Amino acid sequence: MVNAGDMNGSGNLMDFLDEPFPDVGTYEDFHTIDWLREKSRDTDRHRKITSKSKESIWEFIKSLLDAWSGWVVMLLIGLKAGTLAGVIDLAVDWMTDLKEGVCLSAFWYSHEQCCWTSSETTFNDRDKCPQWQKWSELLVGQSEGASAYILNYFLYILWALCFAFLAVSLVRVFAPYACGSGIPEIKTILSGFIIRGYLGKWTLLIKTVTLVLVVSSGLSLGKEGPLVHVACCCGNFFSSLFSKYSKNEGKRREVLSAAAAAGVSVAFGAPIGGVLFSLEEVSYYFPLKTLWRSFFAALVAAFTLRSINPFGNSRLVLFYVEYHTPWYMAELFPFILLGVFGGLWGTLFIRCNIAWCRRRKTTRLGKYPVLEVIVITAITAIIAYPNPYTRRSTSELISELFNDCGALESSQLCDYINDPNMTRPVDDIPDRPAGPGVYTAMWQLALALVFKIVITIFTFGMKIPSGLFIPSMAVGAIAGRMVGIGVEQLAYHHHDWIIFRNWCRPGADCVTPGLYAMVGAAACLGGVTRMTVSLVVIMFELTGGLEYIVPLMAAAVTSKWVADAFGKEGIYEAHIHLNGYPFLDVKDEFTHRTLATDVMRPRRGEAPLSVLTQDSMTVEDVETLIKETDYNGFPVVVSKDSERLIGFAQRRELILAIKNARQRQDGVVSNSIVYFTEDPPELPPNSPHPLKLRRILNLSPFTVTDHTPMETVVDIFRKLGLRQCLVTRSGRLLGIITKKDVLRHMAQMANQDPESIMFN
C-alpha cells in the first residue's frame, strides 16, 4: 500500500485517515490475505524502525529487540512444542497400559516403568512383576483362564470406549477445530487463507488433551500429524505477543512454517527432517531467513524433548533402531517391490478415504459424529484385542517390526531355531531357519495387515484428532517385515542360487528383516503423502544409519511414481479439495490455452462490474454498494464513462473508514462526497464536508491485459500470492479475476466440479 500520510488536502478537510485506526489492514474470516500488501507493509515498518534507530539510544535498543524478536519466538516455540510432546508421550504410554492393568506401587507408572522399579523382575520375564497386575488379577484374583481373558477383554473395550467418548465430546463442545490431523488446514493457512480460531488457545488445549485420549484408545491413528497442529498453535500464540508478527499476516506465516518444522522434529525426533518437511510439504512461502529459524526451532524442540526423555532410552522416539548388517544390490528388487506396494496402498487409501469422507459430508452420517467414533472404536477394540500385534499401541508395533533379532530378543518374530554350537558375537547372528513362533507371527501379521488397511480408511477424518503417519508406517512395516522374513528364509534354504551365491554364504548374517520393515514403512508413508526428500531424511534420522539411504530412496521414489500414475494428489491435497479451501498448489500444472478474458468477471450477459469513482460518489452511495454486494473490494476509476483505472479499495477498509469517520468527525453525513484523489473536488459552498479516503487506496493494483494467457495468470497468482488481479486494455478497466475464479477455472479444465471451491 502506498503511504499517503503526507497527502493532506486543505486544513478544514476531514482527513482523519492520516492517523491509523483500529483493525485497518486486517482480514475477515475465511478470506485470503494479500501477500504483496503484507510484504509492502513490513518493508515500510522496517524502514521506519531503521530511520528512528539513529535518533536515540532507546530507539536503537528497540530496533535490536525487534531484530531479535524472531529468534525469541523460535526459542519459545521450541521449548513449548518439546514440552508438550514429552507430556503427550508420557501420558499416552501410561493410559495405553491402563487398558490392560495398573501398577500397585504407583498407579501413574506405565507397565514398563512399574517393572523397572521392581527388584523381583527377571530378565526372561521382564514384562512380569508382582507390582503390575492385570485387571483380572486385581478384580477376581485370576491371571489365566477363560474368565480372566473375558474380563480383561471387556475392560479393554470399556476403557477404549471411555477414552474415545471423552475425546469426541471435548472436541465437539469446546474446540471443533481440534479434529483431524490439521495438516490440510495448516497448508491452507500457510498459503494465505484466514481460519480464525483454528490456531487458538482453546484449540491448543483441547487438541493436546484429546490427542492423548484417542491414541490411548487404540484407534488406528497417530499423534505425529496433530503434533504439527499443536506446534503451529504454539507458534500462533507466541507470535501474537510481538506486534511485528501479530499485525502482519505474512510475517505470522513465516513463524508458522518454522513451528511446523518443530512439530515434526518432536514427532519423529528428526530436526532436519522437520525443516525439510516444512519446506517440501506444508509451506507456501519459505525465504532463506525462515529456513534458519525453522532449523533453530526444530533444534530447541528436539533438545527439550531429549531432556524430558519420555521413553527412558535417551532417544527421541520409541522406534529408534540400529542395524549392523550391510544391504546388498540384489536386495534392491524386494525394496522396489515394497515401493510399488506403498504406491498402490497410498492410491487405494486416498480414494477410499475421500469417498468415505464425502459420504460423511453429504449424508446423515455426518450428523452423528459421536456415534460414529463410538462404533469405530468398538469395532477396533473388539477385533484388535485377540491379536497381540494389534492389541499393543501402533508405535510399539512399529518398534518391534523395525527391531533386528539379537541374542537377547524374546519376541515371537525372533523365534528362530538356533545352532547349539554357535559361538558368534551377539551382534553377528547368522541367518537361521524360522521356528514355530515366526510362522505364528506371520499369519498374525497378515491378519493385522488386512485389519489396519481397512480400519484406517474409516478412522482418518472422524471428529477427533487423527494423524496418518503412524498407521501408514504400520501398514508398510508389517508388509516389509513379512517380505524380509520371506527373503531371509529363501536365502537360508537356497543359498546356492545364483542371486544368493555371491553374498549369502552358509552361516553368514545376510538379510535384516527389520530393514525391510523400515523400507516398507517409508514406501507406504510416501505413497499416502507423496513426500520424498523429507521422508528419506526422517527415516534416516530414525535409524541413524547413512548406509540405508539408498534403499529408502529407491522405495520412496518408486512409491511416488506408482501413486502419481493413478493421481497427483496426496492425502492432504485431496482433503483440501474436499473441504473446498482456496489452495493453489505449486505442484499443479496448467497447460490449457485459455486467456484472461475467458475467466474474468463480468462475463457476457452479467451485470457490469461494481466500481467506485474517484470523486463523484457520496458516503451513502458507497454504503449502498457495500450492502448490495459481497465483493472483497472495488476498483476505483476516474468515472463510469471513461473507466480509467486509478486503484483498488478493500471492502473491509471502506467499512472501517466510514464507520470511524462518522464516530470521530462532525460534518461527515450520508451525502458527503467521498474522494480518492490528492486534492478535493470543487464543491458548492453549502455542501457537507467531503471524506478523503486516499490512504486506504492501493494505487498499484496488479493488472494484466485481456489477452494474457491463463498459464501466466495462474503463475502470477501462485508466485505472488495475489487475492485478485484486474484486467485492463489500454488502461481501461474490463474486469477482475479473483483467486477463486482461477481455482474454479482450473477445476473446470480438469473436468471437476468448479462449485467445490467454496471460499474466497
Write the layout of secondary structure elements.
Elements: H1 35-52, H2 57-98, E1 101-103, H3 111-116, E2 132-134, H4 135-140, H5 146-174, H6 183-190, H7 201-216, H8 224-239, H9 243-246, H10 249-268, H11 271-282, H12 288-308, H13 332-362, H14 369-384, H15 388-391, H16 394-402, H17 436-459, H18 469-493, H19 498-501, H20 513-529, H21 533-543, H22 549-566, H23 571-579, H24 596-599, E3 612-613, E4 617-618, H25 619-628, E5 633-637, E6 645-650, H26 651-664, E7 673-675, E8 691-692, E9 697-698, E10 703-705, H27 710-720, E11 724-729, E12 732-738, H28 739-749
Parallel strand pairs: 3-5, 7-8, 10-11
Antiparallel strand pairs: 1-2, 4-7, 5-6, 6-9, 11-12
Structure notes:
This is Chloride channel protein. Pfam families: CBS, Voltage_CLC. It is a multi-pass membrane protein. It is found in: Endosome membrane; Membrane. The chain is mainly α and 760 residues long. The chain folds into 3 domains: 79-96 and 176-308, Clc chloride channel; 334-417 and 428-578, Clc chloride channel, CATH 1.10.3080; 596-750, CBS-domain (Roll). The protein has helices at residues 35-52, 57-98, 111-116, 135-140, 146-174, 183-190, 201-216, 224-239, 243-246, 249-268, 271-282, 288-308, 332-362, 369-384, 388-391, 394-402, 436-459, 469-493, 498-501, 513-529, 533-543, 549-566, 571-579, 596-599, 619-628, 651-664, 710-720, 739-749, and strands at residues 101-103, 132-134, 612-613, 617-618, 633-637, 645-650, 673-675, 691-692, 697-698, 703-705, 724-729, 732-738. The strands form 4 sheets. It has a 4-stranded mixed beta sheet with strand order 3-5-6-9. Mean pLDDT is 86; it is low at 1-21 and 423-427.
